[in-house]
Task: structure prediction
Amino acid sequence: MTSAEMKPIETQPSSIELRDPLIVCGALRTGVRLVGALLDSNSGFASGPELPFVVTMAHQWRDLDATLGLNHEKHYGVSREASREAFRVAILKLFAPRLIEMRKPSFVLQSFAAAISLEVFGKLFPAAKFVLMVRDPRDVALSLLRCQWRNPRDGRPLPYTQDVQSGARFWVEFNSMIARSVGALNAPGRLLWVRYEDLCLNPGSCLDRLAKFIDTPRIDPSIAESSAGLVAHSSDEPHPALRVGSLDPASVGRWRTQLAGRDIAAIESITAPLRGKFGYG
Amino acid sequence: MVAANLGNPIFIGGVPRSGTTLLRVVLDTHPKIFCGTELRAVHALATLWSSADQRSGQLLNDAYAVPSDSLRRIFADLIMSFLTPAWAKSGKARVAEKTPSNVLVFPQLHALFPNSPLIHVLRDVRDVVASRLERDKERSSSSVDSVGLARLRAREWADTMRIRREMLDHPDRSRVYHELRYEDLVRAPQQTLTPMFEFIGEAFDPVVLGFHQVKRNVSGTEEWSAEAVSRSIFTTSVGRGRTTLSPAELDAVMTEAGATLHELGYDER
Result:
């Protein structure tokens, strides 16, 4: 059999167009899965549980391109563009059956880790847009305390779920990386910041802004149970979803009544500079 | 070997300095086989697939309707996307890929390409280490801990032998796994290559022994071998380790890998 006869293996009907995904990302407990479920319920987008290895694939492409891109071009006739396209298509093929099942044209990739790799995803998927979730670190630290998350390697509770100071430091570390990642992406028109608080307290205007950004008709604020269950499906990663429910205004500002004063002071001290930059006084 | 294998890529691997480049140029000289310079991507992609399948396979099946075989084919296609353009341009019927580290993922490659021949090049660990130490010293700007390096290189050689054992125990072994020794290849090339070509479903063609007369690209670790494959097969490298390694280096090697060397039937003296 010659190379001409050895066709690529089809994993979906040729009628499916492999479109770059919408990428919803952000730190833990900021509403990433919530937005994924919303879009899966109410728009031309389908979502699914997080697939951590997709981030690894994206990094794999970046590393191969950086170390071997020229070599592959010179010795194998594989241009860097072709290499990128090969990885892009491989990832998009993972979502195709779900899109066919849901009869939807586009996929929402929800991923925490993608938030700190925006440049990689931005290059791998040149037409992708990004929704970046942020949330008040005081509510994030409180929310993390409720998570029974453990390191799968040693079974120990993850440190940032054990006390608010660790949770606050985690918020700072992760969001610092996000800020750098946004800078590296350097594509303002492709990125929309969404505050968890706006989503829960003013869903109408927030979702209108989101709909306009992703060029879709109005997004209803309801979440279908099937979408919530799917998006929250557990993997073997250490951060299984607690629950993806409806938009809950009561989840905003819980820190005011559920955290002790000294804990609030600790979080505010740790997160001060970055908290201000993210618009949280 | 049966015709079902003909459309599947041939993968060659072995610890560096074991003769994989020599075998690669021999194969590439065959009128029916294209075997370009090292791709150096297969190991990473095969490892990534294996990890994805193990950790997310159930999730992909349940939530994404992507069963394990679909995931396998996605990654197999990804690997082939790197091989196919140059293969097509060559006009040859078969494609092979040689990167030494392929050997470390032979089990994964067999799962990804169930009908692909896997060829493992073996060589006496002492000669391998002697050759690698020579390069290690050349590349270092300061003095090296040669005994420590010898131990490390011997351990890396032993790691590939663990894969060998796994492949020898595999139920598909006789159909997909073939090994040949550098020493046999250089001492009796036609006798050694003929069964290998039969294994991959091709006839031996004496033109392959003229590999050194073909000008070709080399890259990656092949650059170490560029001179060696620009002349006809020679046997002077066989046994060099016993004379070029210091007693301390040799002792380190034999401590790490002596038992396996014995298992392979090499003379340990």
